[in-house]
Amino acid sequence: MGKGEHYERELMDRLKAEGFAYTRTPGSGGKTTEARPDIVAGHRHLDVTIATEAKFRSGGSCPYKSEEILGLESWALKFGATPLLAARFSRDTTWYFLPPSQANETPSGNRSIRKADRDDALTLEDIITGDLPPIEECLTRWDVESYAERWRTA
């Protein structure tokens, strides 16, 4: 099991402990031509469904490639899930979540969550309380209506 998979499983264990149903998507993160998130989780009684790209880093920033972001957003929009970037840093057991639209944009068009962003990020407790932005506010650069129409006909 790779380091990334280990931390994805850790996140799934935390979601499970809070009563979420979840699935990990093998082959996500660019190992397939089909866009899909690392983890999809939902809780019917909390009315919460999330799709995440999860990263662990020992350094000061968790990077997300623009292709990962676009894939996450398109999948989440079709599925009806809130797209979230999930980051965990060494020596800190908290998972931090940001909508892609709120993550730092790099000059190359990628996104990142920095350790300095932790105060502005959502935590698992925020997700449990349903304190999530609307899906459309999470997207980085979509005209949501035309995008939704495109996927209805695809």
TrEMBL record:
<keyword id="KW-0460">Magnesium</keyword>
<dbReference type="GO" id="GO:0006281">
    <property type="term" value="P:DNA repair"/>
</dbReference>
<dbReference type="InterPro" id="IPR014428">
    <property type="entry name" value="Hjc_arc"/>
</dbReference>
<keyword id="KW-0255">Endonuclease</keyword>
<keyword id="KW-0479">Metal-binding</keyword>
<dbReference type="GO" id="GO:0006310">
    <property type="term" value="P:DNA recombination"/>
</dbReference>
<dbReference type="InterPro" id="IPR002732">
    <property type="entry name" value="Hjc"/>
</dbReference>
<keyword id="KW-0540">Nuclease</keyword>
<dbReference type="GO" id="GO:0003677">
    <property type="term" value="F:DNA binding"/>
</dbReference>
<keyword id="KW-0227">DNA damage</keyword>
<dbReference type="GO" id="GO:0046872">
    <property type="term" value="F:metal ion binding"/>
</dbReference>
<keyword id="KW-0233">DNA recombination</keyword>
<keyword id="KW-0234">DNA repair</keyword>
<keyword id="KW-0378">Hydrolase</keyword>
<dbReference type="GO" id="GO:0008821">
    <property type="term" value="F:crossover junction DNA endonuclease activity"/>
</dbReference>
<protein>
    <submittedName>
        <fullName>Nucleoid-structuring protein H-NS</fullName>
    </submittedName>
</protein>
<dbReference type="InterPro" id="IPR011856">
    <property type="entry name" value="tRNA_endonuc-like_dom_sf"/>
</dbReference>
<dbReference type="InterPro" id="IPR011335">
    <property type="entry name" value="Restrct_endonuc-II-like"/>
</dbReference>
<keyword id="KW-0238">DNA-binding</keyword>
<dbReference type="Pfam" id="PF01870">
    <property type="entry name" value="Hjc"/>
</dbReference>
